[in-house]
Every structure is written in structure tokens, then in C-alpha cells.
Amino acid sequence: MATLSAALRLGLFVAWTLVMLPPYLLALAVRLRYRQVAMAYWRVVGSLCLKARLEVRGALCRDRPLLLVSNHASYVDIVTLGAIIPGCFVSKAEVRSWPGIGFLAIIARTVFVDRKAASAARQRDQLTARLHEGEPLILFPEGTSSDGNRVLPFRTALFNVAERQVDGRYPLVQPMAVSYTLRGGLPMGYAGRPTYAWYGDMDLVTHLWELMKAGSFTVEIEFLEPVTIEAFANRKALSRHCETEIRAAVNRALTGRFDRPAPVSAGQAVQAGVAEAVA
Which residues are within 8 A (CB) of 174 and not within 5 positions of it... i.e. 6 or more apart? Predict the structure, then answer.
């Protein structure tokens, strides 16, 4: 039964992608509401194809320019964040050449970076130009994905975009934490997260198939307080602050020990994201 359900949902993913491509590409070509179309696409992929239940704490900052900084455990992060944030991702350059995924990343206006020190200045200018357009950038400073049970040390190079003013002001930097907490309504546990986290040398197709057979799961996203580089001595201090805040938020989610506002539903989060995209 699980295999049949997974096959049907995989077929739905392919069909939904083919259905949504034409309106998205048209909206992208005329630069009109293409983020709303993308958010609708990711919402169906997450809720119906992957059976992900999304809970959100805190709120996406409405001010611009905005750099969002997140931990990273899986390609599912892209699905869930894409459903509620009208922005674009910053990704390692090799993703561009991945079959299928690379195409989707390109048309989603992903900013590809190679993370080499020699490219730092050029990539800072590229990211600054994108912030100037008013779209939030979503950055995964760990540089790779984790097993979902911990937050890896942050790399500081791409935080240099926070040091460059955009339209006379420094970008706001908002940390956010993504945590995989429940499976079928029950605590996922340490050993259960690799079913949803994709990391190391895991094969993507095999992992996706096992994830879809596993059934429903809950992803918790917590938006934390935004800051600017002006509050810190340098970008390394800013990076340490974001890493500390995100690690604490992930620990709260995995242990269920919250001292923050109660989560909102996925629908409320999406409505807030759509309102943000329209504003």
C-alpha cells in the first residue's frame, strides 16, 4: 500500500510540474506575480506529493533588502521554504548541472556560487544586485546538508553581502531554523531523521522514493529576529550570531521546549507569504 501511494504521489509530482511550468514561465517572462505561482507550486509539492505538514513560528521580516540565513538538511527544505517565502535561493554551483533539479533551480532564478575565496568579491556583487531587486535571498551557510539532528559550522564568506549597502542601507539578516520533528504525528527521533534529511553520499532517487513511502511528516520553521552587520564587529561575528540562534532554535524544535509563540498553520504561513509577495 505504501509503495502504491508513493507511486501515485510521484506521478502527481511529475504531472503538477508539467501543468505549472507554462504559467510560471509566462509569469517569469513578464516579471508579473511569478513568485506567487512558484509558491503555489511548492505548496502542492510539499503537502500532497511529499505529505509534509508545515508549522511556522515567528514571521518573515517585511523590510527589504533581506538576507535569510537557514540551516540545511534536505531538498525538502527547498520545498517548504519555497512555499512560504517569495524569494530565491543561493546554491552551490554544481546544482546547475544536476538533471531535472538544475533546470528547476535555473528557472527559479537561483543564484549559483562556487564558494571559492577568489570568487568572493564577484559573488558579493551578484548577491547585492539581486537584493537590489527587492527579492529576499535564502542562504544555507553550512555549505552542505546535515543529518537533521544538528547544525553544522557556518562558513562566513557569503556573509560579505551583509557588509555592502543596498539603496543606502545595510541588508537585514534574518536567521531561520528548519527542523524535522514528527513522523505520522509521533516524534521522529534521532534515527528517523535520515529518512527525510538528504546528506553525504546518499543517492537522490533512492532517498526520494524511501521518503515518499515513509508517509506524512512535520517540518517546523522558526523565523528569528533580524539583525544588521552594524550590530557586530565583522561578518564573522554576524555569522556566529546566526549560527548560535539557529542551533538553539533547532534544539527547541527537536526537544519540544519552546519559549516562543505557538506555530501557525501552513495555510496561514502561505497567506502571509503571498501577501509579502504582492506588497
Answer: 60, 61, 66, 67, 68, 69, 223, 224, 225, 226, 227
Place of cell 526520494: 208
Radius of gyration of the chain (CA): 18
Within 10 Å of residue 186's Cβ, how many Cβ atoms?
A: 10
- Beta-bridge mates of residue 66: 172
Q: What is the dihedral of CA 179, 183, 189, 191, to 10 degrees?
A: -100
pLDDT band at 279 (very low <50, low <70, confident <90, very high): very low
- Cell numbers representing residue 53 in the block: 505538514
Write the pLDDT tens digit of every residue in 216-245: 999 999 999 999 999 999 999 999 999 999
Q: Which residues touch 251 (CB under 8 Å, ≥6 apart)? A: 257
Residue 262, pLDDT score: 54
- What amino acid is encoded at 2 in this protein? A
For 197, the grid coordinates are 534529511
d(CA 279, CA 274): 9
Provide the 8-state DSSP code for 74: -
pTM of the model: 0.90
Task: Kindly state the cell numbers that stand for 212.
Answer: 515518499
